[in-house]
Structures are given as structure tokens and as C-alpha cells.
Amino acid sequence: VQLVESGGGLVQPGGSLRLSCAASGFTFRTYTMSWYRQAPGKERGWVAGINNISSTTHYATSVKGRFTISRDNEKNMVYLQMNSLKAEDTAVYYCYAGGPIPYWGRGTQVTVSS
Who's near 71: CB < 8 A, 6+ residues apart? Predict the structure, then answer.
């Protein structure tokens, strides 16, 4: 089983990034997929989720209206489009598969700084 995140990097405030998560080794379409993030010195927190049936999405209040989560069940991919980035969005972003057996990716660093 693998969840591999990509797309992180350094971006200026107000900029955009698109994170990707490639899943393999499990039945992707049966899992709710989420993104979490962890800033230095803080606990890991939930950012956004998308369910496996209707692709209904949910967002943390801090990112609602700026971030968009999506999935492609044909490609076993989940994405996080992040717009209007702020310094407080700086964190390691993790892909999470929620199901009978949950899985975590290793994370990708996002740094928002001028």
C-alpha cells in the first residue's frame, strides 16, 4: 500500500499550489480520502475530505473557499487545489485514506513566504 504526495513547495502569499496524492495497493474507490496538515510545533489537523460514493466534500473553516479537494477514481488520485495561500497554511500536508484499514502518506512540505 502506498500514498505518495507531490506538488508541495515554496510559494508567495496569495499564490496557488496543487497537491496530488497517488494511491496504490488498496481499493481506492471504497475509501474516503482526506488531506491533513501539520505545522511546526502543532498537532496534525484535518483540512479537507471527499467521500467515496457521491464525492461530497467537506472543509475545515480555515480553508473553506480557498481550497478544493477532488478525486479521480479511474487514476486512483486525490488532489488539493490551494488558492489564496497564507503564511499560516505553511505545513507538511498528508494524504489520508479512511476505510477498514486507514493509510497515511509521508507528506509534502508547503511553505508560504515572501
Answer: 33, 50, 55, 77, 78, 79
Provide, rounded to the nearest whole percent, the portion of the chain with pLDDT above 90.
Answer: 95
Question: Contact at 8 Å (CB) between 80 and 8?
Answer: no
User: Which value, in Å, is the radius of gyration of the alpha carbons in the chain?
Assistant: 13
| Cell digits of residue 26 | 488498496
Neighbours of 52 (CB within 10 A): 18
Distinct helix (H) and strand (E) counts, the chain: 0, 11
Per-residue pLDDT of 38-55, as tens digits, reads: 999 999 999 999 998 878
What is the predicted pLDDT for the residue at 98? 94
Task: Give me 5's grid cell.
Answer: 504526495
pLDDT confidence tier of residue 100, bands split at 50, 70 and 90: confident
